[in-house]
Amino acid sequence: MNRNLGIILIIAGAIMLIWSGVSFTKREKVVDIGPLQVSVDKKQQLTWPPYLGGALIAGGIILVITDKKRR
User: Fold this and answer.
1) Where exactly are the structural domains of the chain?
2) Could you give the CA distance from residue 6 to residue 53 in angstroms, rounded to a whole number?
3) Which residue numbers in the chain have pLDDT < 50?
4) Where are the strands (E) in 34-69, listed by range?
5) Backbone angles phi, psi at 19, to 5 degrees
6) What are the tens digits of pLDDT across the range 60-69?
7) C-alpha span between 10 and 25 (Å, rounded)
8) pLDDT on residue 70
9) Contact yes or no for 62/7 (Cβ under 8 A)
10) Is pTM beyond 0.70 here?
11) What pLDDT is attached to residue 21?
12) What distance in Å separates the CA atoms of residue 70 and residue 60, rounded to the nearest whole number?
């Protein structure tokens, strides 16, 4: 169990190091007067610090190593 979780953490950490964030577009309604509707597309970005990816990789490696020692 710990080995699988460790591998998942390593993969997630590597992905977080490669992509430092995700941007997406959100449609927001500005005016809604009866049949008249005006909406605006707003770009938003979700970012995470690079050290978080490194921490996930380190934690995954520790889980994989400790699981091998138990066997």
Assistant:
1) 2-70
2) 13
3) none
4) 36-47
5) -105, 115
6) 999 999 987 7
7) 29
8) 66
9) no
10) no
11) 87
12) 16
Q: Cα dist. 17→5, 41, 53 in Å? A: 18, 28, 5
Let me know how long the chain is. 71
Structure token pair of residue 55: 């921490």
Task: Work out the number of other CB atoms within 10 angstroms of the CB of residue 31.
Answer: 9
Crossing angle of helices 50-70 and 2-18, rounded to 10°: 160
Q: Which residue has the tokens 């938003």?
A: 44
What Å distances lie between residue 63 and 24, 41, 42, 49, CA to CA? 33, 43, 41, 22
Q: What are the structure tokens assigned to 43, written together?
A: 């770009």
Query: In 10 A of CB 25, how many CB atoms?
Result: 8
Residue with tokens 């927001």, as numbered in its chain = 28
SS3 1: coil
